Amino acid sequence: VGEIINLADFEERARQTLDPAAWAYLEGGASDEITLRANEEAFRRRRFRPRVLRDVSSCDLSTTLLGQAARMPVGIAPTAHHGLFHPECELGAARAAAAAGVPFTASTNSSLSLEAIAAAGGDRWFQLYAQRDRAVTESLVKRAEASGYRALVVTLDTAGQGRRERDMRMRDVMPQTTQGNDATGGNSLEAVAPFLSWRDIDWLRDLTPLPLVLKGIMTPEDAALAVEHGAAAVWVSNHGGRQLDRSLATIDVLEDVAAAAGGKAEVYVDGGVRRGGDVAVALALGARAVFVGRPVLYALAVGGERGVRDALAVIKAELRNTMALLGIRAIGEIARDCVL
Amino acid sequence: VGEIINLADFEERARQTLDPAAWAYLEGGASDEITLRANEEAFRRRRFRPRVLRDVSSCDLSTTLLGQAARMPVGIAPTAHHGLFHPECELGAARAAAAAGVPFTASTNSSLSLEAIAAAGGDRWFQLYAQRDRAVTESLVKRAEASGYRALVVTLDTAGQGRRERDMRMRDVMPQTTQGNDATGGNSLEAVAPFLSWRDIDWLRDLTPLPLVLKGIMTPEDAALAVEHGAAAVWVSNHGGRQLDRSLATIDVLEDVAAAAGGKAEVYVDGGVRRGGDVAVALALGARAVFVGRPVLYALAVGGERGVRDALAVIKAELRNTMALLGIRAIGEIARDCVL
Amino acid sequence: VGEIINLADFEERARQTLDPAAWAYLEGGASDEITLRANEEAFRRRRFRPRVLRDVSSCDLSTTLLGQAARMPVGIAPTAHHGLFHPECELGAARAAAAAGVPFTASTNSSLSLEAIAAAGGDRWFQLYAQRDRAVTESLVKRAEASGYRALVVTLDTAGQGRRERDMRMRDVMPQTTQGNDATGGNSLEAVAPFLSWRDIDWLRDLTPLPLVLKGIMTPEDAALAVEHGAAAVWVSNHGGRQLDRSLATIDVLEDVAAAAGGKAEVYVDGGVRRGGDVAVALALGARAVFVGRPVLYALAVGGERGVRDALAVIKAELRNTMALLGIRAIGEIARDCVL
Amino acid sequence: VGEIINLADFEERARQTLDPAAWAYLEGGASDEITLRANEEAFRRRRFRPRVLRDVSSCDLSTTLLGQAARMPVGIAPTAHHGLFHPECELGAARAAAAAGVPFTASTNSSLSLEAIAAAGGDRWFQLYAQRDRAVTESLVKRAEASGYRALVVTLDTAGQGRRERDMRMRDVMPQTTQGNDATGGNSLEAVAPFLSWRDIDWLRDLTPLPLVLKGIMTPEDAALAVEHGAAAVWVSNHGGRQLDRSLATIDVLEDVAAAAGGKAEVYVDGGVRRGGDVAVALALGARAVFVGRPVLYALAVGGERGVRDALAVIKAELRNTMALLGIRAIGEIARDCVL
Lengths: 340, 340, 340, 340
What we know:
Four copies of one chain form a homotetramer. Chain A is of the alpha/beta class and 340 residues long. Chain A has 13 helices and ten strands. In chain A, helix 1 (7-17) runs antiparallel to helix 13, helix 10 (220-228) crosses helix 11 (250-261) and helix 12 (276-284) packs across helix 13 (294-326). At the A-B interface, helix 13 of A face helix 7, helix 9, strand 7 and helix 10 of B.
């Protein structure tokens, strides 16, 4: 690639840059990677119905997420171990998000501690892997509150470890990075608790005033339960195709999940977002925001904070362009009939 | 390619002939070029239902468009900057259209002035990009009237600039051509006004006695509004896949748009026409005529006026052959049940 | 290819054997060859529902066609100019058909005269291209009667000449063969009459006691008209994809055509038959017999009469095998529920 | 391949290891191998609907098959001539099955005698090709009873010999193996009786107290008849795509067959199983167990008993992982709504 014009350019350049094992970890999905591919393809199959002569002289991309202003309906999804990709680690991506006015979600498994990441400012959310020892979990939550994180994103789709075969074949040559929250917290980070139930959600809801975002919901049934258990938001995700292969594409379940949420919880989606137009598709199908994972890491690998800023600018420019050509003046106007 | 037999032969020869940047400009579409490909594929997916023993000894391809006779239900779509492709510029294509008895649509962004193009004679229409300064727009319209253009084709799908990535990568090496209407008119041509509304259409309707053709309609909703605002024709177009990628293929929206026009406005379509049989498909789905863009430029690049004459002759021969084999004796007999 | 096991082996060996222009003529279809490919693909998309434990110890493939016994529900479709493919010309294929107990259809455009072909014996049908001069047509029909042909197959789908682009590119190097019926008949063979109507069918019906088989029917509407005009059989055909490209695949219209024939005319189909299993598919969808075109020419090119005998034996073995594995003991048991 | 991680790794390594004719025999299917491919593709097209927060801390894969405990709902399908693939012959696979706690089905055409295979212990079933001479059949059944086989699996889909063209081309170079049941039994093994009827099933049911498993059922009609004739289980199979090409994929008929069995017979399925997740798909669609054929032979070729143990361990790990990520705690919880 010469000039960087779209997110695929970041991907190609990152592929050339990164250590093969780090690349396998970043790019790979579970088993046959059917869901990995399906996520992207499901977006690409959707078709727009553009309207004309709607005077889009002002085109407002801003929205609110959990009550906080966001300059576009896009956030950065939690991804682990940024140290594998760039020496700025999570700070690069977090600062870029703050500069762009969109939320950054810090992973429990970040290379830097959540306190270190907090220095980036901006709207920060904390992604929680509930730990086997509830005291460790509680400590993580309290640290997140103390460091100004504004939402707790609980990952639900890790009842088993996804069979990521690229990783399995690279196991012995995988580069190492720091475990940020282990080194700096009051408790040592233990193995993730795989066997969560709705009682754990109730316990978390009582533990913290932070809004709970439940990530990994793929069915209307679970969306309805999430609302019932007090979730502030339902995050449609199949973990980027890294957990259960042959799961449905996220965009294909979004509409039913949003209907089940019934306006009582915000609805987010991740998986396969590679174009600003994807954001419009997701919003038309009921999402309030879209979260971006791998492309942020591509951009981080290519240029640290600067790269991620550029990637977010590409998404924004593409989304603005899509909205103008759809005849949409504000985020709230993106309705079901924009896409087929 | 040896002998030229079909439009794909022109395309291949043009590819070999043209400067790579001019080729990229001609051939490219927006973003992932999904809509660019979808336009052609949507035609190719349709299937004919041929009838036999209908005595097609006379097979009449003639029709009328906006009340003017046309020797076949085909016209030349507006495309910019013919100077990039052949020294005859727009005159080559316009003369070929006049010779073939089909309308030629001159682009606002032509390499020659609209007055210079008028020398070609024939049924000429003027494509208008409304300008930021209404006085400039008015001047263009009055010049078109004065030069004998018979219709005003208003392009509606440019509320943003399509993200044509092939162009973006070729920006620095794009060859230059003249801006015909700038040099010869009374006003200098300014930036296109992106933010049109139906009030601008009303203003144009009051400004000129020319029939208004609204180009870039992709939904029944907008087709109904077009009729309501006095359009003489609705032109289904996604700008050849150059504006909003993932727009529906034009042929896939045609039937609904035609139903919404309800016979109160003529309906045209462009995008992906590569065979005379495509014309029959479009007419069966409700179009009164089909407009051809890129193939005209391929033929212009290959052989100037002569090339475009040959290309129009290929389309006509293929259309006549399709009609005979369908058991159709006249344009008006091409009905919905000809295609599946 | 080493050993010849299936019809594709004949095709591959013929490709290696034949002059490139003869190959282009044999293999090519109209325009983009969409229908050419669709014919084969439509068969391959169908799925069988095999039944078990039906005691297929006797498996009877015989049937009757127009009242004549046939040893399997298969015939040889009319194809022109066998002299391009093998020095035995039509006699090779006709003798093989007689030996296999299936009908051979001699083309008006055969390399040998219809009288010469009659020497092959067996159940022979004559394919008629109606001529501009009715006297010539009448002469052909009377010669066919006198030479013992038992049916008149009237080709209906030549209201125009299919645009076979492979042929067009090879025009100057096409090898020559004799025009059998011109040299030997009482009248010279003129250009085919393209502009037939149902009145011509009525005239033919009154002209000859031979049963009329109408070839080239692709719609239920025309099938109903065929019955009304006294056709003994309706032959579903798109001329092997050589006439109107993007016509539906024959197997995809068969069921509706058969329903329209309503048992008042026999129903045949050709186009894309490459396996004995295809015969079972066609019969399940309403055909009484299947006609084979190109594969007979592949086999003729490979081995003359011997080759065609072998090809017919392959089809028979495959059909018998398919029937046994479907749990079918006789042709009449192949019912709609055998295929999906 | 380096490390062996999934069943495809076994396949690739077996391909590198085996004699080309043995490989062709193992890998090939009938005719165009459409059904061979369709079996695998039908599994891959299905999509999971994962549930979260279901506390899968205990995940129980055990089930019963014909009243016998199995440690997972998986068995080894009958395949012939293991001696072509590994010197341990059937004993390698049978011992691996016993070690894994799943049933092994010995083929009539095994390289070792059924008595020799009995030494492996475990839950063993005997696959019967009914012989032309009922006395030979009876002898096989009585030997199977005497050697502790617990079920009689009667193969029904061999009313003809599948046209396996890879084999036909390799006929002269196919390596030889022993015919185990010929050498050791009291009667010589004759040609298989192709022409079975339901009366033969009735005779077998009266002949032996062993539960009858009818293998090769592909329609609800035959499933209903199987129940009526006293089958203990219905085994959905198209013989791994080796008999009737273009048969439906097994997974695509499973649901209807299971509905027809109506809980009165157990339902099994084979064909195209390559992932533990496939087992979950099949159970969701109504199967009680899935049988694995070719992958067992890949593994046998790669490593004898050790290889097959490893292959079964891969399937089990993948199934356990799939169940955990679906939110399933026990085999009985895999319900219709798990898959789309």
